[in-house]
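Feature request disguised as a bug: please show the residue count (573) next to ARSI Arylsulfatase in the output. Example input:
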Amino acid sequence: MAVYALTGFSLVSLLSFGYLSWDWMKPSLVADVATDPMEKSLSPAFARPPHIIFILTDDQGYHDVGYHGSDIQTPTLDRLAAEGVKLENYYIQPICTPSRSQLITGRYQIHTGLQHSIIRPRQPNCLPLDQITLPQKLQEAGYSTHMVGKWHLGFYKKECLPTRRGFDTFLGSLTGNVDYYTYDNCDGPGVCGYDLHEGEDVAWDQSGKYSTFLYTQRVSKILASHNPKEPIFIYVAFQAVHTPLQSPKEYIYRYRSMGNVARRKYAAMVTCMDEAVKNITWALKKYGYYDNSVIVFSTDNGGQTFSGGSNWPLRGRKGTYWEGGVRGIGFVHSPLIKRKRRTSWALVHITDWYPTLVSLAGGNLSNVPDLDGYNVWPAISEGKDSPRTEILHNIDPLYNHAKYGSLEDGFGIWNTAVQASIRVGEWKLLTGDPGYSDWIPPQTLTNFPGSWWNLERLTDGLRKSVWLFNITADPFERYDLSDQRPDVVRTLLTRLVHYNRTAIPVRYPAENPRAHPDFNGGAWGPWASEDDEEEWEGGREPLKTRNKKKKCKICKLRSFFRKLNTRLMSNRI
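Example output, currently without the count:
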């Protein structure tokens, strides 16, 4: 078992943060429940389809909400969660694209080919076009569908855009992160472009408006112009609180006593986003939607601890398969919930929103078989057991293999060098390299990171490739039980083998120079023509084109700039 240096944090210190008062030891609610696939298509009976508002925040840490004991002010989120149902056994993915793809498709990323990393701006890649999306299903059910905010599911050709994937309208960015005011995004030195789009056009005229304000105003405008007697779905994917750390000054001033500068700016962005949610809720009430609405709030992944976020007391951060990377903030607020004002420990995953929301809408799931998500509305609204008993966090065959992993360590059935993670019941297994593994307390001191931070660092166990935790009894992942319970390890490895047999090849093509904004009017946007052919060849080959002449010109330009840069660097030296 790994040895941890815990000299700085006693039982008293944990109590002072308020975490041991949480009911972490409550028995799992997912044991002995039915898993009949037919349960996925059950629809609750409503007088009329509810309005659905799905709010997704970006890089908000598990600790960074008031009701988790945070030093950041989130009065709106606290109130909405308190009046609804808090989801304290809720899981997301460790990075942006995977969470968004699983929300939109209801499928694990191994079943869409997006199991490695994110979709990068210059890749000829997007959410597979054969996938029937959540907004498409809601359109079938008679909903008006709108998206505001960050897409990050690919855009190399027009068929990939939000307005081609089920949304009637779209205002937002296509890439992973942009400046909050100028909407510029650089994918490496000199590869910069504008990224704010209205529908399928570049929204040049909106530059200069802080994105959180802009997106909130758009939601209010949509609600004001729509008939509340007709069902509406609005997907609000805030850019906040992803880097760059930018906020209006009036919000930063509230945290002027906070010593850590990154944490101060980050806190300001969270509070600004909280007020945006308040304004959205107010608009729902003002325009007559609220009484028949369902508001879902979710984070997309764990917080980035080196950019002001905090997942304390969970282990790890964004980009890892430790709980700090995959356990999310989630709650549902709705007048339609039968058992309100409570905390649910039912196991819920981000894939579950697809069948849950389609069922709420009275939609038909018969033409989308083999979903990985479940209808969890009875668990949320009535307090029933969750139909979910396990979660495949991921299997990534392309991620750097762990140095000390082997097939032998995996009982001859699984190569433990491969990055993978799964939860079955109360057990969680990780193999390969699960990512940065420290416990990082809230960054409230000026000298963070400093000596006190090191008190919670992992000091041993780096020569491992298998970890096992009873995540119900040990949500902080401090006690590795892989040596004590090889029987459980083998059982969970068998489940990984099962899932791996259903995985499709990874879609992670090489970047294409034609995507450069300089060749597209200075903005990020679709660049592949209808004549382009995709040749994945294992999922890693670049898109090839019949337009040899055009491609050749771009190659010559790229070669010219490379030679020019080399000469300039030589002159500097």
